[in-house]
């Protein structure tokens, strides 16, 4: 599996073992970057994490670079009045001074695109570089985790490339149950 960090540097190992799965850069803390397991046929995946800014300077996550992933975007998932979910590309994700921003299924997220052909299995790690406007760059790794029921929203991503129909079907299955 080429996404494993078999060649992790000593520096990275020190950074990741200091705390559970947190990274620090200046006044920023990035906690528990993760994505979900997926089959090789699935072309996209969502990346999630919590970013805390304890400094007194507003910052912004500008981009995420992942060597093995052809295209990485920042997205916001929104559900309109009809219960139809869609994803809106973001130019960056603001991390205001003193605030904590959570990237999670159904909200802000990193979108890994063009990754058909690569299966992600629980326990895999995906090396990435986060680029912040003020603080600069931070190397992290996304843990690949098993999907739980609460994370069903993240499954929308797996359907995104298959057109709006399957995407909508998925959202509505949940919607109809409640009505
Ligand atoms: Cu997305």
Give me the CATH fold name: Immunoglobulin-like
State the helix count.
3
The largest sheet, given as strand count, sense and whether it forms a barrel, is: 11 strands, mixed
Helix content: 10-25%
Low-confidence stretches: 1-11, 14-19, 157-179
Strand content: 35-45%
Task: Give the radius of gyration.
Answer: 16 Å
Which structural class matches the secondary elements? alpha+beta
User: Using DSSP, what is the number of strands?
Assistant: 11
Structural description of this entry:
This protein has 179 residues and is of the alpha+beta class. It has a single domain, classed as PCu(A)C copper chaperone (Immunoglobulin-like). The chain is built from three helices and eleven strands, in the order αβββββββββββαα. Strands 1, 2, 3, 4, 5, 6, 7, 8, 9, 10 and 11 form an eleven-stranded mixed sheet that branches. The N terminus and C terminus are likely disordered. The site of copper (II) ion has 6 residues, from strand 9.
């Amino acid at each position: 599996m080429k996404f494993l960090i078999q060649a992790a540097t000593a520096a990275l190992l020190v950074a990741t073992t200091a705390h559970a799965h947190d990274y620090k850069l200046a006044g920023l803390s990035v906690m528990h970057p993760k994505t979900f397991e997926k089959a090789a046929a699935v072309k996209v995946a969502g990346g999630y994490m919590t970013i805390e800014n304890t400094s007194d300077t507003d910052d912004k996550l500008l981009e995420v670079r992942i060597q093995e992933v052809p295209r990485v975007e920042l997205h916001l998932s929104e559900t309109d009045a009809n219960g139809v979910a869609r994803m809106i590309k973001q130019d960056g994700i603001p991390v205001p001074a003193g605030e904590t921003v959570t990237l999670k299924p159904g909200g802000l997220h990193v979108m890994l695109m063009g990754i058909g052909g690569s299966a992600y299995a629980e326990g895999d790690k995906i090396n990435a570089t986060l680029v912040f406007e003020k603080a600069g760059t931070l190397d992290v790794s996304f843990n690949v985790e098993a999907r739980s029921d609460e994370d069903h929203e993240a499954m929308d991503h797996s359907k995104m490339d298959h057109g709006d129909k399957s995407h909508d079907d998925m959202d509505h299955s949940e919607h109809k149950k409640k009505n």
